[in-house]
User: Fold these one by one.
Assistant:
Number 1:
Amino acid sequence: MERTPVSSSNLSAVGYDVDRQALEVEFKNGAVYEYSGVPDGEHDGLMSAGSKGTYFNANIKNRYPFVKL
């Protein structure tokens, strides 16, 4: 999945597959996680958030199942 670079102190890039509702998050430390069952609106919210890290922590982390890639 193609990831888009983001401006964040903690996140490096974000990718999304609308058909699978899969969100990939690449962190500054190089770790990549895929979150499943993430609605398109959640991805839109993350990408438009003033603070991507704050949005991620409040709305995605610990709310959706994930695997480390």
Number 2:
Amino acid sequence: MAGNTYGQLFRITTFGESHGPALGVVIDGCPSNLLIDIDFIQAELNRRKPGQSAITTARKEDESFEILSGVFEGKTTGAPICMMVRNNDQRTQDYAHLKDVYRPSHADYTYQTKYGIRDYRGGGRSSARETVARVLAGAIAKLFLAQQGIQINAYVSQVGPIKLQTNPDQIDVSIIEKSLVRCPDETVSNQMIDLITETGKKGDSVGGAVTCIIKNVPAGLGEPVFDKLHAELGKAMLSINACKGFEIGSGFDAAQSFGSVHNDEFYITDNTIHTRTNNSGGVQGGISNGELVYLRCAFKPVATIRSEQQTISTQGDEVTLAATGRHDPCVVPRAVPIVEAMAALVLADFTLRNNTLNKHNL
């Protein structure tokens, strides 16, 4: 099975299945002597884990992690870092009724078609449980980026039709985690929570959006043509389960704008170049311009719902399916740390690539 590795210099490979013994990641290319903050890594996992609030799935995963290699006396050695989380709250019996059924909008049929076999216990590699490995790797990337002064924060900006109208550059990141839904506006947050709660009671699910802001990105990150910074961010975000859309800066709103309005004009203050607006989202020509980088990811409603749906069995018979088990009515609150992790992996990789380029230019 290909497609399990991401990055060039800061490179990760994830492994494991949703109902296997463990999930984990191997990180190759992390610089040596990076101080590893165990508490920070655990806190990142806790933000992603199920059962953290009344509006998430009732599963109670411990998600304590183990470091198997690449760290000695609290610092990275430069060797591959292997990290792992054991699966402790498996309920394989919850999926027994799906053994011979293709779930609507899941990867059951496509995996069966491609590989001739599928893990019906939660989807195996296609399960969102795989993202625990990304959060582990993203935490290491964040520790590396913190040395460069780069700060990454994501938040829920939409649930169903309820949208946060605050501009990304005006967000108070200190209040994001104070909201159950991770929306940095109390009024909008409460509206989102009410909608998610009511949707869950109906046995349905609802989609939403996560916005990510990246501060203190230096000018010059990104490569021309095929490895543009925003192109890699798009690939990283669209690789997240349930992510169906990506935009950076003004995104799709640019399609209804005019150049006279949309263009980011330059000005200089204290010998530093800035733009009067930031419609480009901090990236021009695929390379960061030193301004705030901000992006937005759209997530579909969770495909597993308790309401009855029509589907087919593996034998081609039409059947009615009402899912059982423990599932989120809305994925976006738990997607926030995953979006941050993927953004961190992209920025860490480009930072190392830029450092290598600068060494060659000396």
Number 3:
Amino acid sequence: MNVLDLIGNTPLVELKKISSELNGVSIRAKAESRNLSGSVKDRAAKAMLLEGIESGKLRPGKTIIDASSGNTGIAYAILGAVLGYPVIIYLPANAGRERKTILACCGAAVVETNPLESSDGAFLSAKAAAEADPDKYFWPNQYNNDANWKAHYNGTGVEIWEQTGGKVTHFITGMGTSGTFTGTSRRLKEYNPRIEAVAVQPASPFHGIEGTKHMASTLKPGFYDETLPDRFVEVNTEAAYAMTRRLIREEGLFVGISSGANVQAALDLGRTLPPGSIVVTVLCDNGFRYLSEEFWWLNND
């Protein structure tokens, strides 16, 4: 088996204790920490880099450069090591130290950007560097690269359909680049147009849900389709934190903050649905990337 084959085909797990709060509605989640570098971003990073190699845009001597809040950068770093390319990641300075440490362990160079400008600032800085020396850099540009969402159209959406035996009724997840939401939703709606695509949004522009954009107040990804979501569910940061703690303590799933937001949104959605509904969401990464975050030790649940 090639190491790249360790990306995709992740398990779909039923959240039985959390689903028990609902009236016959089942919440299920894709365990994306099972991917090679430990997050859902492996899927898009693999697709974008392989497309770059196939097109000739990524060739020996070039350096992979892009912006990330952490997970895509880690995926680039690990895949760059496998494929033989150096990697530079532009990262907001307030990104967690675990993600910075992982990037350093992979041999990636990290350029820290203004934390007040969040992921938008990192994107603009990476864009400027890539465009200033295109012969040196390969810029996948994850926010505007169709290979991103197509990775989920060809992978995640197909897997969910098959793993639920075609019984999925709702797909719900947060959006960073919006690649997971866009590709998965488009594929599922091709299988069954009645499947609802539900987008998770932070309740405020100022939030602590890593990797998730508040679309109304930020630069929108180029392939973000405003007509695709059938509805939105808002989640505040404190509720996302609380659910992240619940997932390890009740379901045995040690995941990150965006995963907690997704499951909280799925639970809120599930309360409005009829019995027999099957809601699928995404556990984006593992909790080891957030060990230094203080919310783990709060006791206000």
Number 4:
Amino acid sequence: MTVALLAGGGTAGHVNPLLATADRWRVVEPTVEVLVLGTAEGLEARLVPERGYELLTIPRVPFPRRLGRSALSFPGRFRDAVRRTRAIIRERKVEVVVGFGGYASAPAYLAARLERVPMVAHEANARPGIANRLASWLGGVVGVTFSGTPMRGAVVVGMPLRAEIVGLDRVATRPEAVRRWDLDASRPVLLVTGGSTGAKRLNEALTSSASAVLGAGWQVLHITGSGRGGDDPGLPGYRVLEYCDRMDLAFAAADLVLCRSGAATVSELAALGLPSVLVPYAVGNGEQRLNARELVEAGGARIVDDATVSATWVESDLLPLLADRDEIERMAQAAAGVGRPGGADALLRLVHDALAARRVG
């Protein structure tokens, strides 16, 4: 029986691929013991136990970005997090550490190195984070979602995706999806979503242009998030949800998606062959624009700056695209051409290779 410590958390971008990998690992190796290392403050504190995995927590120790009191106390707090993780590795007889970035991963990588346990890192974004760079520097095996991610020796594995996405038959599931939201099965659907927190500019641009989009013969399934604008226009064929707990059905209903370009979203669109218009989040270090690059260059998506999205942009750019069904079909085929639905299996191959190398050695 393999005992594995999966480290990561803080945001959905770290937790979801971790859980997708854990779920797939249990399918291919039912006897595996999966432990999850995270913090008490991150999203993992709720999602990991809900999924049936044991969560072990260490203190949240972010890397300091500037000089100050937190920077001065960082070395001691980081050493303590590493010490606690080393104790977990020894006491639970952990054989491999798999990290997904986030606050828990950096201490896990260093603890694995000190305990001489193999480590594998998965980098979701096209611009790698500090924790996964550390794994590379420490000699860990690195799997990346996107080709061109600047990490030496990295292997492109894709994104570990939820089973309900990997196994989704969009054509067979579409009747159920359109019934769920009382949509017309004979008319195409534009799915609009800003991710788990919503996107104010997308929301306002689309709801203010609702009549024009519906007049183009399309329906809209619009996931707004909470408190991010986008009041329901109250028009037939325009469905507004604050939150969607069945994104698999939303994708099954959609013919075109207007959304942010988080790594998981881009990977899901490609895996499902869904054409899209991507609006990278304007705040941050620019990783969402880089995440979109492969899909855009393949012709499976178009990209637009967040500041450009408005009712005027809907009229000048989005409506002509909605009218060109041949172009949307071409984009769908191009998206499918770069999809990697087997990300979890590819990452697990790296893990099993690392385990085999250690056992042989």
